[in-house]
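RECORD TYPE: inverse folding
INPUT: structure tokens
STRUCTURE:
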């Protein structure tokens, strides 16, 4: 068999105690026989009836200086002798205690041999006092029940001895290592620390304390965030504690590894105001200097150690009251110090527990003797005898009833465990200072006022308290952008007032005032969405925020479609009128444009309704990584941001972007196609193109930057708001500012200047056409191409003038009193229409008539017109004879010609009802080709109309 194994300072053994004791008996059979003879039950049990009896006590402790923990024993003997002396001096006890020390040498085999020798060769001991080395003590304590002996230890703190099933006859006056755990839990509760971590040296003694601490923490509902064990290098485990955000660390390790632990803590910056270390308090003084085997200097260790809390039992009570010996703890300590000086030995931290232990034995024997005497008197008629088993049971029961105040405090046992006082020390400025104590009997923690000094302004937190901080839009930024938005809405309102007030003016009426109102409405909706984009959870509740997600999306989409849909519809009407040359007449009214815009909005509503039903927008919270508190507090800031999202956000946004993109591309196409249309009152293509260009660029840039700044709500809101403001403002200004300027400067410039320009350009083009016709004699193909080009151009001009005639008719119906002036003012245009229509109606005789005109009239006669008439205003000669003649001779024909097209009575191919255009003074200045073409019988003359 393998021999028993003893750990250095530890408590493990491989073989049971019974095997060692049996081996000792087998090796010494003669001794076994003698031992058995001397230990017969009932032998001389009348000791309790005699006064002045010497009661022997077996004292087991290592006395050899070479043995482990022998320094403890050397300081114990003076305390034991002092206690026996004080007991004699009280004269309250009828016996004398005799102690005989047996040296165990802190070795399992030698300890068992010493115990066996004391049993076999020594006097009959009533109790065993001692037990310093945990391994030897546990072996002997396990066999005490068989010997009917009770052991009282003053230095064995190993938690394993608290198992009463295994060690029923074992008591100790010193609290066990587990006794500090209730005190630690009480300390944690005092500072409201509910989350801790443990760092334990991988040794049985510390593992047992940790296991018991785990049970105590679970009972107190304190979370154990992490449990780490190490053998040699603790740095990896310390790093894990930091990674798990453990702030309150309860350590269980000896002083040899404590220096390594604090060196790792220094390197990992796990000290200071954010951390609190709680370690055992039984280390030797200045242990960091003696046990420093690390690369850290003493200064670094002291820096990391500053503020740690050590927990250990109280060697002497702080209550200066007289105890069972009639002395205060201070008085006893002075006497003990004198004894040490006389013997020249060092003090032991367990001397007070040994002193109180002798008093426990004295009181126990006194009580046992009283009980035995009572039984003896009750059985006076019979021979009273008592055996060792009964005596042992009496001693065991009396020990559990012990309760007195000694030099170490109140001496009381609970299941053999001392309910002592636990002290708390704090490492301050290089030394430990007592800051409080815990009374296990009363379960009270008493901290000395203002003695604990934390390195921060407050105790450390048991975790990194995370404060959720909403990333919201700054109120000043929201106010500034809201102010700008309100100004934009006022501007849109001004444009709306301008458009409604002047809706009957030719310039506004020809630009479709209803469509202009829709553009303004779309701009107002876009402006309004800015207010909703600036609201977040700081202003509204979570439920209201989800509603805002939907409302602002609907408003922005509908506003965009309303504004740009109206613009594109206007452009489409211009494109349909002036680019479809095969149609002789085409009038597209505003009702049709409203239907187009309504169709676009219907598509938007279908998308939005499906979006809302299938996958509605909801409030989602995005959390970001922890940030340090800017004010330096021991908290971490976790920013979070609220978003409006759904499950398939990308798909829905893709549908909306695709639809809006196609709408914008279609608008660009229409604007490009109608860029050369010459009537500004009817054509906004130039400005629409500019609007689409600016809006497209801004939307692309805004969407990209907004996505990149998704985690910065202020930047994102600023970009979105500025893009909406810019796009809406630019669009409204490009549509209405030119009209406003024209109305302020020259209301009729849009029509008069364009007619003058058309006449001048027409002269030049007709001159070119004349030259071209002259060259037809040499190249028929070239001449025909030129005629076709002219025909195409003149047809477009006819359509333009038809629109003007419609406006004239509407004005005639609204203001009858102004009819003479309007008829007179538009009379040249009517002649132009009649001449141009006749010019374009002939097909078969067109070539020959044009050829005769070229041969009979010189080229200089083309387009001859009096410049004074052209440049003269419409009211310069309104009462002249020429104007009177016009009013009398052409008023009815022009009215007839202007009215019939509006009711569908005259087709664009028909000639004028005026039978003699040459009678008008205006025709004297028309080109020859026009005059002859008017006299040529057209389709109307033959009755085909």
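DESIGNED SEQUENCE:
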């Amino acid at each position: 068999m393998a021999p028993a194994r003893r750990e250095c300072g530890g408590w493990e053994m491989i073989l049971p105690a019974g095997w060692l004791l049996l081996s000792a008996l087998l090796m010494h059979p003669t001794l076994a026989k003698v031992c058995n003879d001397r230990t017969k039950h009932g032998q001389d049990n009348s000791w309790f009836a005699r006064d002045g009896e010497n009661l022997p006590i077996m004292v087991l402790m290592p006395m050899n200086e070479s043995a482990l923990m022998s320094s403890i024993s050397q300081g114990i003997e003076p305390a034991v002798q002092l206690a026996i002396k004080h007991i004699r001096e009280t004269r309250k006890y009828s016996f004398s205690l005799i102690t005989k020390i047996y040296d165990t040498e802190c070795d399992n085999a030698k300890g068992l041999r010493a115990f066996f020798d004391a049993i076999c060769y020594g006097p009959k001991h009533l109790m065993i006092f001692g037990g310093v080395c945990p391994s030897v003590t546990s072996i002997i304590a396990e066999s005490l029940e068989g010997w009917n002996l009770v052991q009282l230890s003053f230095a064995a703190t190993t938690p394993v001895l608290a198992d009463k099933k295994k060690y029923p006859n074992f008591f100790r006056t010193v609290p066990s290592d587990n006794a500090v755990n209730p005190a630690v839990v009480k300390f944690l509760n005092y500072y409201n620390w509910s989350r801790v971590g443990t760092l334990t040296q991988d040794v049985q003694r510390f593992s047992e304390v940790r296991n018991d601490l785990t049970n105590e923490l679970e009972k107190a509902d304190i979370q154990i965030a992490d449990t780490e064990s190490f053998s040699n290098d603790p740095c990896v485990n310390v790093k894990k504690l930091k990674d798990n955000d453990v702030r309150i660390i309860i350590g269980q390790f000896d002083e040899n590894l404590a220096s390594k632990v604090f060196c790792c803590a220094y390197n990992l910056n796990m000290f200071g105001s954010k951390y609190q270390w709680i370690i055992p308090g039984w280390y030797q003084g200045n242990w960091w200097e003696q046990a420093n085997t690390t690369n850290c200097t003493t200064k670094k260790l002291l820096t990391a150690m500053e503020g740690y809390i050590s927990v250990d039992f109280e060697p002497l009570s702080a209550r200066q009251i007289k105890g069972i010996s009639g002395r205060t703890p201070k008085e006893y300590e002075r006497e003990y110090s004198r004894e040490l000086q006389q013997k020249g030995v060092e003090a032991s931290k367990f001397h007070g527990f040994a002193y109180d232990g002798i008093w426990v034995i004295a009181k126990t024997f006194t009580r046992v003797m009283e009980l035995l005497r009572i039984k003896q008197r009750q059985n006076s008629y019979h021979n009273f005898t008592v055996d060792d088993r009964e005596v042992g049971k009496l001693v065991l029961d009396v020990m559990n009833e012990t309760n007195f105040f000694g030099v170490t405090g109140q001496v009381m046992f609970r299941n053999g465990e001392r309910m002592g006082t636990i002290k708390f020390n704090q490492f301050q400025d290089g030394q430990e200072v007592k800051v409080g104590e815990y009374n296990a009997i009363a379960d009270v923690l008493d901290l000395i006022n203002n003695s604990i000094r934390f390195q921060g302004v407050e105790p450390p937190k048991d975790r990194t308290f995370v404060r959720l901080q909403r990333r919201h839009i700054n109120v000043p930024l929201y106010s500034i952008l809201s102010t700008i938005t309100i100004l934009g809405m006022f501007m849109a309102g001004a444009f709306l007032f301008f458009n409604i007030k002047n809706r009957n003016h030719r310039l506004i009426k020809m630009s479709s005032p209803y469509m202009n109102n829709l553009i303004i409405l779309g701009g107002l909706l876009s402006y309004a969405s800015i207010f909703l984009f600036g609201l977040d959870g700081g202003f509204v509740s979570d439920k209201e925020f989800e509603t805002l997600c939907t409302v602002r999306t609907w408003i922005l989409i509908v506003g965009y479609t309303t504004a740009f849909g109206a613009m594109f519809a206007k452009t489409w009407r211009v494109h349909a009128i002036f680019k479809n040359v095969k149609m002789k007449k085409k009038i597209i009214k505003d009702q049709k444009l409203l239907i187009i815009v309504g169709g676009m909005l219907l598509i938007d509503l279908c998308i939005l309704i499906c979006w809302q039903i299938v996958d509605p927008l909801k409030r989602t919270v995005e959390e970001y990584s922890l940030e340090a508190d800017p004010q330096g507090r021991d908290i971490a800031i976790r920013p979070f941001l609220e978003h409006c999202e759904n499950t398939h956000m990308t798909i829905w946004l893709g549908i909306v972007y695709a639809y809006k993109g196609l709408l914008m591309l279609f608008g660009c196409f229409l604007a490009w196609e109608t860029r050369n249309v010459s009537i500004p009152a009817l054509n906004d293509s130039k400005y629409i193109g500019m609007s689409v260009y600016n809006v497209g660029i801004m939307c692309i840039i805004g969407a990209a930057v907004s996505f990149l700044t998704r985690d910065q709500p202020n930047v994102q809101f600023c970009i979105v708001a500025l893009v909406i403001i810019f796009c809406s403002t630019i669009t409204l200004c490009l549509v209405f500012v030119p009209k406003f300027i024209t109305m302020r400067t020259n209301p009729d410039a849009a029509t008069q200047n364009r007619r003058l320009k058309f006449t001048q350009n027409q002269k030049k083009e007709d001159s070119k056409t004349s030259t071209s016709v002259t060259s037809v004699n040499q190249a028929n193909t070239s001449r025909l191409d030129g005629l076709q080009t002219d025909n195409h151009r003149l047809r477009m001009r006819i359509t333009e003038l038809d629109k003007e005639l419609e406006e004239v008719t509407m004005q005639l119906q609204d203001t009858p009193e102004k009819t003479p002036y309007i008829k007179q003012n538009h009379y040249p245009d009517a002649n132009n229409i009649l001449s141009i229509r006749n010019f374009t109606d002939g097909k078969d005789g067109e070539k020959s008539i044009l050829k005769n005109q070229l041969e009979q009239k010189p080229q200089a006669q083309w387009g001859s017109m009096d410049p004074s008439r052209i440049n003269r205003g419409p009211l310069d000669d309104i009462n002249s004879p020429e104007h009177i003649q016009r009013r009398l001779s052409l008023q009815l024909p022009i009215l007839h010609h202007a009215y019939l097209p509006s009711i569908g009575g005259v087709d664009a191919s028909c000639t004028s009802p005026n039978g003699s255009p040459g009678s008008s003074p205006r025709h004297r200045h028309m080109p020859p080709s026009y005059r002859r073409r008017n006299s040529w019988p057209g389709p109307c003359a033959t009755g085909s109309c």
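NOTES: The longest strand covers residues 635-645.
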